[in-house]
Amino acid sequence: MTALERRYRRLMLWYPRSYRDSRGDEIVSTLLDLAPPGQRWPTAFEAADLIEGGLRRRLGVATVDGLDEGLRRAAPVALALLGGAAAFLWWRVEPLGPPTLGPAAYAAWLLACAVALLAPARWTRPALATALAVTVALPAVAPLTPYARPPVWVLMTFSVFGVIALAGTGPWPRDLERRAAPALGAIAVACGAHLVAQAWPDPLVGYYQPAFAQLGLVVAAAVGALAALALTAPRHDTPSRSQLWATLLIALPGAWLGPFDTDTWRATTALPPFGRLAQVLLGTTLVLLTMARLRTHRPRRTPANADPSGASATAPGPRARGVAAAMLAGCAVGLLGFVAGIGAVTGHAVATVLVCGVAAALLGTSRAGRGTGQRTRAPGSGFVARVREAGLAAVATLAGAYAVGVYSNDWTFGGWTELTRTAGLAVSLAVVPLAFAAYTAYRSARQVPVVAAGLLCAGWLGWLMLPELPAWGPVLPVLAAAGLVRAALSIPAWRGRTGP
Question: Is the distance from CB of 205 to CB of 113 less than 8 angstroms?
């Protein structure tokens, strides 16, 4: 075995073992045949291609129906949003406050749009990778310079949009329309955000926060347009899965571009508002659950091939209910431990812990089926497994609550003073298990305890959310788009005329 072959095979370790066993020798042999004489190392393009291919296989991008094509559809939209957001923030926001390192990332994304328009196709991916690397590196580089970094929400949104643009862009040739689409879209996004800023002047002249929410309206409009295209496009089968995947991929970071300004409140004894953290958690959870539904959804069965038992192939079973119960129980234990540890056991925190505990108990008492009279004994859903899952959820909740405390107290690791506010923000972490439990109960609502648990979780979320509905801002259209995608999965296939 030559040194080049050995290095190719090391790169093949990024792929799953099953794929390496079936295709590994073929891929390595092809690469060796194409290598020029005397080559000892894989080229940078070959290494990047093998690593990306392995990650796509491990993440299921290449095997999930419609996801690969959905990434290709979402990539130019993500790049247009990145270019427009970079231009708007650099033009409208940076001059308002102290200088940050943001323009370094903004310039990199604008350069990537220019490369996609003017340069050969093979240079687009390196430009996107460079811009993504610059964005991710800003938090580490900022402490070494006299400049601050942009807000975390900005960097998170840019990074995920950048991953989508990079993963969905290939080296294949593109016509003029496809090359110009990201650049023209970036101009439209920047101009649209400027018009929104002019029509919606913030009463408090702010820095990133008002502009961030204003930009979010434009991104939410793009998500809504993608959802409308997915639902109204002519089709001869169920709605285009690739269009639905593209909608959800853009909606995921789009859910982080809101709400309105909630950074100025300081809660002492009152119930904390349903602020940015809770809305980001809820939006992310709903989009991910919709992705999971789209991934497992199968076309509606006809009466000829329907399951005589009436069971749904994609409805959550005892295992999903057990996971939801463990998440709720672990979250309750973790939150109670955190608020007790910092000495801020508020009524809101205790009520949330009780809701999680009761819902976990209701889901845990669900039976295997209607009228069976037997407890659920699905593989991996026994008592020991649930205790282990609940313990992991408790540890994750404690770690997440501490991270929220560090973030909300100016990135300090101790000596916190606003303990009530910190406890209120930490309790927002319960949004994730509550939303997952409500979804699981809705998908398998065949027993009274399951229905009761779903109503309890959904009611608690509604009680937290609805009073703050006017302040939600751009996240509302994003969540509506997720609901449209979910509704699209129940649209039956259209059958054309078969007779004269």
Answer: no
